[in-house]
Design goal:
With about 350 residues, the chain is an alpha/beta fold. The protein has two domains: about 120 residues, NAD(P)-binding Rossmann-like Domain (Rossmann fold, 3-Layer(aba) Sandwich); about 170 residues, Dihydrodipicolinate Reductase, domain 2. Helix 1 crosses helix 8, helix 5 runs antiparallel to helix 10 and helix 7 packs across helix 10. Bound molecules: nicotinamide-adenine-dinucleotide. The site of nicotinamide-adenine-dinucleotide (NAD) has 26 residues, from loops.
Length: about 350
């Protein structure tokens, strides 16, 4: 193992991160930390990790890892990122990065002040279909992109694994909206203004579990981003993001079942873009699990002095501003300038 990491937060999702680190040549986890000792111990046992603990400060001071992977929920991020910045060279923080721009900017500043790299675990842009669409756009396959619709609608019981979501006021925007906004920024560039409508669809949850945002990008492109956690669909496409993107010379669609279609005046090309299921994975989560591995796969190059991991904490400030802007737009009915 070349680069040694510590993971903080041994909960539901980080099992994917641990399994993906286990597959990555050149990097690995040497210590796991959770304030609940039973969870830290279980991770150490399940993944064969030599060190486990309940106090991140102690563990980081002792192990001095090359990188720290923070997989806790949002309210703990600022304190943990600021702590990690004192003990390591690269910090990864799960999404949502922060609840406020103030906290997010403070984390970026704390890392910059020490010359520490900071990335946000925005794995959706690393999903195989999105990587394929991005490559087509960069190759000029449809000319300049002008319009995009991105849709994440399903009825999968997300509350079984993440019960805390049922209590969050703006759960659709803060849980998946930020992934979707990161994806549209990645494909169409930064946004300049947006409007948004939210809905409460599921009577069993406290917050808004659906939204639709209309976004203007700096390039002049327009995107419509929609999300619902309470749609009755058969087959249910969870966790696929479906999209249509239109350029001057063609259109790309990604339909349910990982079907990518490139439509141009000279014909239509269609191919499957389903990612492989990791050996430790399970369908339908393989789309997410493969994207976690792709995101984390950037780390050895970043720590070797190559390209920084994407997206960075600084880049994610713009995505967080979109989420907070969308909440404001939905509350007031106004169009928000970013
Ligand atoms: N990128 C994705 O695709 C994706 C998918 C699911 C969840 N997530 C995100 O992952 C994060 C974690 O979600 P989860 O469902 O695994 O939550 P979880 O509650 O199951 O796990 C979080 C763990 O962090 C621990 N923890 C909290 N504060 C700590 C601290 N200061 N020190 C040590 N341990 C601490 C908790 O005890 C808990 O075990 C959330 O922010 C969620 O939005 C991301």
């Amino acid at each position: 193992m070349v680069f040694r990491g510590v993971l903080i937060g041994c909960g539901f999702f980080a099992r994917n991160q641990m399994a993906a680190w286990g597959d990555l040549p050149g990097a690995g986890i040497i210590g796991v930390c959770d304030r609940d000792p039973a969870k830290a111990k279980a991770y150490a046992r399940d993944f064969g990790i030599p060190h486990w603990g309940t106090d991140a400060s102690d563990m980081l001071a002792t192990l001095r890892p090359d990188f720290v992977d923070i997989a806790t929920t949002v309210e703990s991020h600022r304190a943990l990122v600021e702590l990690a910045a004192q003990h390591t060279r690269l910090v990864i923080c799960q999404k949502p990065f922060a609840e406020t721009l103030e906290d997010a900017a403070a984390m970026v500043a704390a890392c910059e002040a020490r010359g520490v790299m900071l990335a946000v675990h925005e794995n959706f842009r690393w999903q195989r279909p999105i990587r394929e669409v991005k490559a087509l756009l960069e190759a000029g396959a449809i000319g300049a992109p002008r319009w995009l619709r991105l849709s994440f609608r399903h009825g999968y019981d997300i509350y079984a694994n993440q019960p805390y979501l049922a209590e969050v006021r703006d759960l659709a925007l803060t849980d998946i909206g930020l992934h979707l906004f990161d994806m549209v920024r990645h494909l169409l560039g930064d946004a300049t203004r947006l409007s948004c409508e939210v809905q409460k669809r599921n009577p069993r949850v406290a917050g808004f579990d659906a939204f639709q945002a209309l976004i203007r990008h700096g390039s002049g492109a327009v995107s419509s981003v929609e999300c619902s956690f309470h749609s009755v669909l058969s087959p249910d496409p969870f966790p696929e993001s479906l999209l249509q993107i239109e350029g001057d010379d063609g259109t790309i669609t990604v339909d349910e079942g990982f079907r990518l279609r490139l439509q141009r005046a000279d014909g239509v090309e269609e191919r499957g873009v389903e990612p492989p299921c990791p050996i430790w994975g399970a369908k339908p989560w393989h789309l997410i699990q493969d994207s976690v591995a792709a995101f984390q796969g950037q780390l050895p190059a970043a720590l070797s002095g190559g390209a920084a991991m994407e997206p960075s904490g600084a880049h994610n400030l713009g995505t967080l501003a979109m989420v907070l802007g969308a909440i404001r737009a939905a509350d007031t009915g106004a169009t928000v300038t970013l």
